[in-house]
Amino acid sequence: MKYLFWAGLFLLAGSAHARVGKWLPDTPDENCPIRLLDCRYQEERLVSCRQLTDRSAEWQTSVSEESVKDGKLFVFRFKALKDMDEAGVAVAFDHYRWTSDNYVMIPASVYNGNRQRIVNRNYATGLDPADYDRPDLALTSNPIPQLSPDFGSKSLLEVSVCNTATPAIAILDRQRKTGILLLTDQGIERNQQILDHNLIVEETPDRSMASFVISAPGVREKKPEFIGFSKSPDRGIKINKGDEITIRVTRLSFACHDVPCLLGHFMAERKRHIVCDAPRHLIPMSEVLDIMNKDIDLRYFRKDSVEFYRPEAADWMSFGWIGGLINTYPMLALGDKEHLRRVASTFDFALPRAKGKSGYYYDILQPDGTVLNRDAAAIVPGIGLTRRNGDVLYWMVKQFNLLKGMQKEDFIKPEWEENVRLLADAFVRTWNTDGTWGNYIHVESGKVAVYHTTGGAMAIGGLALASAYFDRPDYMETACNAAHDLYRQFATMGFTSGGCGDILQNSDSETAVALATSLFTLYEMTGKSEYLQQSRDLAHLCASWTVSFDYRLPEDTPLAQLDANLTGAVWASTQNKHGAPGFCTQSGDVLFKLSRTTGDTVYAELIRDIIHAHAEGIQPNGKITERLTYCDSDRRGSRADGWETGWNETNGALMAMEIPGIYLRTDKNTLYVFDHVEAEIIRNDSRKIVLRITNPTAFDAQVTVLSENAAEAQKPLGDNAFLRWTDKVNVKAGRTVTHTLRKKGV
């Protein structure tokens, strides 16, 4: 390691020049790309930010740097030379010849600088009525940290690490075709707790320069809430002479031609700076499946002659999104007479009702058969969330195929098929008429009501499956056209949005995984490599929403007392700022499929983390909630014990079904373990492979083993593949077993 005192680099800027921003240099100097800063606060306000030199009276500074692949690891050390109150320090990385066309991402908080239209609407009310039916309306969000979209105005955002899935800033300089990653730590330790860093971006009014700042401790002027901001509780700290503060930053720079390239680098490097503990083995996937299936069964509604699987706590049918007509999938897979009857009752109740003349469905169906106008529809009756209809299309066709795979084709009723076909027709008609599906649709006419989101991402996969099921090539044509446009308009811009019906059009994780799944479905069905690469690009975006490090919570918080490992929790959106157990509502099997197809274990690691984080959310009573959060705007450090949410039951069951416990490549002598067990190959010869499998949990496990050779791995896995995974290994709690696999052809 090389130690430097950068006295010449950190020259004090001339005091005669007026400061143009909080964190920007007093005098721009391209020869000074990194500044060390002394910060003073008055409560939550930054009142002084001075550049430090080797002659400064407040801090003695030193910088060490270590060359790493594509960049350097910097360690900035600050030693106090005197007592100070309400103080802090910071490191600024200045970027000259900047432009607002450049892309800035802070994982789970900022996408493309969040440069969108801002309004202030109440929770789950949708847009203002005057904003509907406006193709010219800009993407609209509730107040969030953002770089200003208005040239010449102040442009500053501040994000605490507790509001990020990874403590990092990702930058694409489009003109230089360069990507930059700034990776740092959670914060600094003081009095046995971590004070989070702030990640700060500030641009000059003419956007010719930008400063990227890591401050310690992080002091925000405004604290983001679920909607809008509140007075910040952040404060500077009392410093005694001799105190030391260290800020570590890994700065990577690489050739990068577009945003997908940048996000690919981010996924590969997001765990590089912080060494994390391995996920905890808590509950085997087989036990999770059993628990989640029981929870779903408890949601079965029965009153008079009406029966259906409720997807949430209310006594109604909710289509798509949080599990409606999705939670029936694991129930079908059980295959027994009673569960088949219950699913049939659900389809019989839901599919012919709540349907408009167009073929689309309204959001909510009450037990009496009437539509409930809720959320945005309560303000603008007659609209439906596009994402809900996309979910219904995809999952209904998938369930038809599941029944065929189970040799229960006779169970499928023609009227179910007809209703699903009409829904597919509706998506085709809307695309042909409006050239998009938007965020909301008018259920009766099929016209787009709110434009400019990827809310219909799941419909791409749904139309692709429906094209084969109904022998309709026009469905596939529309699916491919939509994939092309949504990828070009959104994925290349580094965000997706429109999947969540309780917020506006904020960037969200749900459309990212939906688009990734749909694109991989197209790849499996067409064999076109472009869809494989595009699916990978969306998986990289998914990684930005997934916690990548061991966030340390205050010791008095419930999750800290549980010793929870939150790596793998998935953030919902830039508005709904909390980590959750899994994707809503997907298994994330696209990540397993990508790993299987490409051989890149980075995708396997991502879904493994998500699987293990899901188990962290299961309460002692078997219920699961949607909170695994360390964000200070949403029940910080809480699992929300006592809550129950249907969509987390559904995605838990889906993960346990659609992802094998152990994936083994017989030709490579390699395996990857997704389940809450440990496994290794202890023998591999011409005739057999022997595995040693240990179950460290308190629950008996039935571990699914998927073994393949090179030729088998080249074939598309497709949907409902778990029906073919017949190799099951029973391992008692706390026990170790060996399992022998005979090689094919021997």
Overall pLDDT score: 95
CATH architecture of the largest domain: Alpha/alpha barrel
CATH class of the largest domain: Mainly Alpha
**First-last Cα distance:** 54 Å
Please tell me how large the radius of gyration is. Answer: 26 Å
Tally of helical segments: 16
Placed side by side, the strands forming the largest sheet appear as 1-4-5-21-13-12-7-8
Main sheet characteristics? 8 strands, antiparallel
Find the count of extended strands (DSSP E, 2+ residues). Answer: 38
How much of the sequence is in beta strands?
25-35%
Briefly note the CATH topology name of the largest domain: Glycosyltransferase
Q: What characteristic shape results from the CA principal axes?
A: globular
Domain count, please report it.
3
Low-confidence stretches: 1-19
Helix content: 25-40%
Query: How does the helix and strand content classify structurally?
Result: alpha+beta
List the helices and strands and how they pair.
Elements: E1 2-4, E2 34-42, E3 45-51, E4 59-68, E5 71-80, E6 84-96, E7 103-106, E8 110-111, E9 117-118, E10 140-141, E11 155-160, E12 168-173, E13 178-184, E14 187-190, E15 193-196, E16 198-203, E17 209-216, E18 222-224, E19 229-231, E20 237-239, E21 244-255, H1 259-269, H2 285-298, E22 300-303, E23 306-309, E24 317-318, H3 328-334, H4 337-350, E25 364-365, E26 371-372, H5 376-379, E27 383-385, H6 386-405, H7 414-434, E28 440-442, E29 448-450, H8 457-469, H9 473-489, H10 509-526, H11 529-544, H12 558-561, E30 570-571, E31 579-580, H13 589-598, H14 601-616, H15 646-658, E32 662-665, E33 670-673, E34 678-684, E35 688-694, E36 701-708, H16 710-713, E37 728-731, E38 736-742
Parallel strand pairs: 9-10, 32-36
Antiparallel strand pairs: 1-4, 2-3, 2-6, 4-5, 5-21, 6-17, 6-20, 7-8, 7-12, 11-16, 12-13, 13-21, 14-15, 16-17, 18-19, 22-23, 24-25, 25-26, 27-28, 28-29, 30-31, 32-33, 34-35, 35-38, 36-37
Helix pairs in contact: 1-11, 2-15, 3-4, 3-6, 6-7, 6-8, 7-9, 8-9, 8-10, 9-10, 10-11, 10-13, 13-14
